């Protein structure tokens, strides 16, 4: 590919030069001067890869591209992440206007091969936390619509970029709230208090908000009769504590009251 003029001139020349260096090994650019470049463009060489070519490049080169060696500085690694993220954003934009990414065998490769950039929070032996990045299959990455669960469980999460979240979801990434089983139960005494009464009044006025997912979308197959039953018999109590258990990827952790939700929804079939 031949770089455009805008890719070789920038108000921030240092950043631009670093990004040019960082792009090496991911996308191959050539520059033989105006005359030669003009000839190459006339015979079909492009300024940038098509959507399917870019997808192939990310799939085929992500491992070697991020294979860090001792000569890679922190600045260069950050530039590589920035360049790769920009490529993903270009792919996301293309996915909205072309069907090329959904045609076999490319579609299956995008589902089953690692190419998505993701982040994971880890804890060192001394208790300090740090974040790493890696490339993975979309099906191995979670979309963060439950940030507390993301903090507690530390799964591999998509970048906090709306366009990348949409792109990853198209090829199999799942919302973390749909993959975590949460069990909340009260501990100790529970009683009706002035605070619980005030909260009860607010919930009754906003009851419909209970029937949306973590992204604010209405839940499907809602039984209106059950909602009306809940409206009539819903009671709020104040408890001494609430225990929370999170089950994720066949692993269960228990959180204390200070680490989890401040409320638990319990039901009695006899009432």
From TrEMBL:
Protein name, UniProt field: Uncharacterized protein
Organism: Rotaria magnacalcarata
Any Pfam family the entry gives: DUF3684
